[in-house]
Design a protein that fits this description.
Blueprint (H helix, E strand, L loop, with lengths): L3 H10 L1 H5 L5 H50 E3 L5 E3 L15 E7 L2 E5 L21 E6 L5 E10 L11 E9 H53 L14 H45 L7 H30 L6 E2 H13 L8 E5 L5 E2 L3 H18 L3 E8 L3 E8 L6 H7 L16 H11 L3 E6 L5 E8 L7
Parallel strand pairs: 9-11
Antiparallel strand pairs: 1-2, 3-4, 3-7, 5-6, 6-7, 8-10, 11-12, 12-14, 13-14
Length: about 475
């Protein structure tokens, strides 16, 4: 037997609530607006139709009442009880046969006088008691199977109620019910089109209203994306009053998180720095010792482990350095950094003897701290200088919002296994081709810290190719 949760889920997946189960706030608001608009317009349409119908019957009653009053005033009863009219009703509809508008004067159920439009038919009035002279509505069957709506009254010419003579007369004025219904039908058709157009306009207005109302949330998303990418340190507070408290709390959270991270990283950096110098000193002392009493092999083992510890500390120092810059806005002009690096590296040994091909666009900004980018490219270009035969190529281009940087040389190259090992954490010592130790793995970590990608490939020049992909940041002036 299904548990209570089954029925709850079934209830939430069906009906009106199921329509609002989507995660889209925009869809929920628009759907709610559409439902409210359609229900409200439907209620308004029914109310307007009822008001119109009452107005139609009120106008019909005024017209019929005027004709009934004219007939009552014109009715003349002769000495022998013969009924006649002192003047005819001027409405031409009463003169055209079966026109849909009729009047009749009767007594004791017998027709005495009638409009020409009634022809030879007789209107049968209901047998009900009514006060003399009071108008009352009535529905009667008319000629040609017409259903009529009208007003009637009873008048009595007997001055002496004690006389047995029946001197009461019934006067009725009626018109075809189909004519009245046609007015309502035409109005209903016009009303449907009018309310349909109004519904479309209101729905469009609701969509626009929801879009305008949710626009601050889209701006907030963009602001958070800028904070995440490092373009901004905080979210701008230029938002409506309803959203500003949320922004302020988010900025306080970012500030508290930044302080906690910086404090933790600073402690890590201080610890690594305090340990690095003693470990380096111990490693140097062991390396300088002579082989006394067969201790050379033991010293080499100790030196190996000290080197590993030193590499780990170096890695943590680099990580701490990266983390210290992650809270600040990051934007670096890539061609500018390369132009500043090239003269410095060319002054190093063999730098002026190498053929340099620099292919960087005039403007290409990447989302990296400029000092970090300088260290990263400086290490990679300097590594290429050490191992190049006679040629180094540095290229940069934008590819779909990503900056691709290529640094390659025509040196001896590195095998696929050695390239993979060079990027491992921790790096394995003694790589023969690169001579980088921790440098390439640290370069990979630096690039990945800025949401980029770092690869080592074989260059077409024969040497090593380092490819870096970093997010492009539009200049602040754009």
């Amino acid at each position: 037997m299904p548990g209570p949760g089954f029925y709850h889920q079934a209830a939430t997946d069906t009906g009106v609530y199921g329509l609002f189960a989507t995660k889209s706030l925009r869809f929920r608001l628009i759907l709610a607006a559409i439902v409210v608009i359609l229900v409200a317009l439907q209620i308004a349409g029914v109310a307007l139709y009822l008001v119109f119908e009452r107005s139609v019957y009120r106008q019909v009653d005024l017209d019929l009442g005027a004709d009934l009053d004219q007939l009552t005033a014109s009715l003349v009863i002769g000495p022998r009880g013969v009924a006649s009219l002192s003047e005819d009703i001027s409405d031409p509809y009463f003169a055209r046969p079966l026109s849909g508008r009729y009047w009749q004067i009767s007594s004791s159920g017998k027709r005495l006088l009638a409009s020409r439009s009634l022809w030879d038919a007789t209107l049968t009035l209901p047998v009900i008691a009514s006060k003399t002279g009071v108008m009352a509505p009535v529905y009667v069957a008319g000629p040609a199977r017409q259903q009529l709506y009208g007003l009637w009254r009873t008048i009595d010419f007997n001055d002496d109620p004690a006389k047995p003579t029946d001197t009461s007369y019934q006067i009725v004025v009626a018109r075809d019910q189909a004519e009245i219904d046609a007015l309502g039908s035409d109005f209903r058709t016009d009303l449907v089109f009018a309310l349909g157009g109004l519904a479309a306009l209101l729905i469009l207005a609701s969509v626009a209203q929801v879009s305008v109302g949710l626009w601050p949330l889209e701006q907030l998303r963009r602001g958070l994306a800028k904070v995440r990418s490092g373009e901004e340190m905080r979210i701008s507070t230029e938002y409506p009053d309803e959203v500003r408290p949320l922004i302020e709390e988010a900025n306080r959270l970012l500030a508290a998180q930044e302080r906690a991270i910086l404090k933790a990283r600073a402690r890590t950096s201080d610890l690594a720095s305090s340990l690095k110098s003693p470990l380096t000193a111990i490693a140097i002392q062991i390396a300088e010792q002579r082989d006394f009493n067969g201790q050379s092999s033991q010293n080499r083992a100790i030196a190996y482990h000290l080197t590993r510890m030193n590499d780990t500390l170096e890695r943590e120092l680099e990580r701490a350095k990266i983390s210290h810059t992650q809270g600040a806005p990051r934007r670096a002009d890539l061609p500018h950094v390369v132009r500043n690096l090239l003269p410095v590296i060319q002054r190093l040994p063999r730098g002026d003897a190498i053929s340099w091909l620099i292919d960087c666009p005039g403007t290409l900004h990447v989302g990296v701290d400029e000092s970090e980018l300088t260290d990263l490219l400086g290490n990679l270009i300097n590594n290429a200088r050490k191992w190049a035969g006679s040629r180094i190529v540095v290229r940069a281009r934008e590819d779909g919002g990503v900056a691709e940087i290529i640094i390659e040389d025509d040196g001896p190259g590195v095998s696929a296994a050695e390239r993979e090992a060079a990027l491992q954490r921790p790096a394995l010592p003694g790589l023969p081709a690169t001579g980088q130790g921790n440098g390439l793995s640290i370069a990979k970590e630096t690039v990945e810290a800025y949401n980029g990608r770092f690869e080592l490939l074989e260059s077409e020049l024969g040497g090593l190719l380092a490819r870096i992909r970093l997010p492009v940041i539009q200049p602040a002036s754009e």
